[in-house]
Amino acid sequence: MSNRTFLKALRKNGNALAGAAGVGIILCLGLFAPLIAPFPAGYTIEVLQPPSTSHFFGTDKLGLDVFAQIIWGARTSLQVSLIAVAVSGFIGIPLGLVSGYFNGKAGAAIDLAIEVFLTLPVLALMIVAAAALGASITAVAVLIGLFAWPSLARVCRNTTLKVSQTSYIEAAKCSGLPVASILFKHILANIIGPVIVNLTMAMAGAILSESGLSFLGLGDPATWSWGLILKKAWEAGAVLASPNPWWWWLFPSLFIMIYVVSFNLLGNGINDALNPKGQ
Amino acid sequence: MDSIMEVVNLHKQFEIKTGLLTKAKINAVDGVSFNLVAGETLGVVGESGSGKSTLGRTILKLTNADSGKVIYKGEDLVPLTSKQMKRHRSQLQMIFQDPYASLNPRLKVGTSISEPMLANNPSLGRDEAKRSAIELLELVGLSPQMYNLYPHEFSGGQRQRISIARAIAPKPSIIVCDEAVSALDVSVQAQMLNLFNELKEKLSLTYIFIGHDLSVIKYISDRILVMYLGQVVELAPTDAIFGSKMHPYTQALVSAVPEPNATKRQSKRIILEGDIPSPGSVPKGCQFASRCFMKMKMCMEAAPNLTEVEEGHLVRCHHHARLKKAAQDVPNG
Amino acid sequence: MARFVFERAIRGAITVFVSLAATFAIIRLMPSNPAQLLVDPLLGPEAVQAMAERLGLSDPIWIQFGKYIMELARGDFGFSFRTGQPVGPTLFSKLGWTLLLLIFVQGVSVGLGVPVGMMAAIKQNRLFDKASNTAVILGVSVFVPFLAFALLYLFSYKLKLFPTGGAFTPPMKHGIAFALDVAWHAVLPTMALAAGNTASIVLYTRNSTIDILKEDYIRTAYAKGWHQGYIMRRHALKNTMIPTTTVISLNIGNMMGGAIMTETVFSWPGVGRLIYDSVSKQDYPMLQGAFLVLSITVVCLSVITDLAIMAMDPRITH
Lengths: 279, 333, 318
Description:
The structure holds 3 protein chains of 3 kinds. By secondary structure, chain A is mainly alpha-helical. Chain B is of the alpha/beta class. Chain B contains 11 helices and 12 strands. In chain B, a hairpin with a 5-residue loop joins strand 1 and strand 2. In chain B, helix 3 packs parallel to helix 5. Chain C has a domain of 183 residues: MetI-like (MetI-like fold). Chain C is globular. By secondary structure, chain C is mainly alpha-helical. Chains A and C meet through helix 5, helix 6, helix 9 and helix 11 of A and helix 1, helix 6, helix 7, helix 10 and helix 11 of C.
């Protein structure tokens, strides 16, 4: 399919558009965070204020603006998920290509590794590692990437297995092209669709992991992230307190939801646009 | 007759999954030997599953042989690593059956042609490679403007011309054409066969032309090699195959070729019973015995050897003496 | 068949080995002194020295790894910083609660996910299917603590229907009364953790049912005039369950992450809550032990699930 028909199909896909819109909003919030609100720090006397025109999403127990925390958290979320996805791409794509192309002993070994890493309780392992390594934003992001590659590698392997059988890859071998060029130019160009779908959805997965780690106290306490806001709210008893400061825990949760759903929708949309019904 | 390549006792086995956990080995190429004469077109025929495509792919080292030799320019290719193979790569090219699957849909056709030239000769430079690619497009009957188009903008015949241009780009001496015209319309097939012959003259090429359509093979080949279950059952000059054909299997294949001239139509159509045996369970005697209309007790017990019955004519059949006599008695058609 | 079981067991063993190697590598290959991490900071430098000797830090790395595995094989997971007691017994006493929660969750997700997925397939592209597709996207996207908060807020804070946490109300009751009390406490944690798992079961059941409905034997069954419910139960269900069970098996590791957060929010006394407590108390030996117990559990559960697939799939048994 040509790029033009793909873009046309993508533009007609409601899910993809909704997803792209959600991603766009969070991207803007994250990029322009310093212009929208100052970094929330210290404390004020306006504690636990409900949402109002001066505090869209209310304030927390220290009187800090929850909206400001969320947009600074968006920055963290984007940073972490981009780094994590890049790391898992650097590991997963070459491993998948190699194991699919050299489908012998090396391929089987990589396949076994993928299988093993998919069965591991990955969040628990990340907790153990983050607890030992200490938690800067970058360390957490790299850590997530180090454990997120298996599903990407699997997608790459399965699609590469199919593409490697085609005559145009045989022809490329026959032409004496270097293996790297066959793998990263000829094969990758033909499996890029499923790879992009997987990378998009990995953005969603990365933020679920990051939020989970922060919520459990393994994030960077000096950097706002959505998981950290929830941790603070929960530890202050915000969910069951009376009267209930619902804004403190609801809004960050909603942003995690929007972020994850947006990337999943976008991924689904790209997938549908790549594989139109009836093909 | 200068031999350009010699294939000696080539073997290739495949493991196939017969169940979820059970495997069987099949002999795709089972002790094939022949020599390839410089400048000839050697046709290879057989039913699907006869191993003819695997033979082509094994000769070019697209899959590695289990044993045997492929001697090219005095060097056995079989044990070479892909790095050592590099010095011969450009000499040995292949054209594939399906014109829709043999061009990378994500690359401009010009890139598909110029890339192999650059890979084999880095000193060439991009502009020079592009110029040669355009010359090649013209040589195979396409226009230079097509350089920047993608494969999906071409018809099947045009794509096959592009594949040919790609194959001749590195200036090969041998080209394996694997069912290279089978997927095309009959009218286009004729044009392509003429193009093959034309290029062979101009570029002094040698072809191994694999196919299942005996009328195509007859038209283009100087000699014909008939394969059955991975083995050579007959190898002879084209005239001999169609004249004094000897192996019962070849007879059956030839009898199925439509003959336009009714007066020339010779013996009646021979219809083989049964299918090609399951490659996992090959009979102990002659592999063809289960379907052969001439089988006798000895055929079930001992496998026949490939025997030279006359100069340059090899047959694998216990009855070759009888066959030879019969062939001489019947005047050639 | 024996070979299938054997291959599966080998793969499980490799997974456990990777878990061991990972925890070992995380501690030993760190730039700082590993002994420091494994000794309660209150105990002072002598204790660190003692630990360094116990770990054999001057030995070659392979010997250290061998010793580490031998200790674990003897059930020696080290000593908790909090209590000074061996970690092993605490872990095993908590494991039961986690397993109980997982059983509840699997029961709910399979009991709900399979029928909904099959229904969505039958009513493909109709309202039910579209609604379930939306629910699936939300379900696989859910952040477990968020769902836990929402459930707590609604059912505990507003409606006061379910307890806010724990696994039972002290003092501990006995017999049926205790079981009912635990079940009552488990309702909200089960819902929180089951959502994501149910969503992926719905998704896979739907897709595999759609494929199966195109098969000739299903069409034949329809042509014979049998009614839908019977066809689905008699013919489609078993074939649908094979890919679905594969997903359940693959999802177990993933679900453990959710279990840690669920148990944390609902103070469920399992291994997950223990992990959270160990993190906040910086009790590293406990944390490491908890992780190992979890991964061994995951491996055992997924081997069991795969054997269940084998029992269902005659193509493997014969």
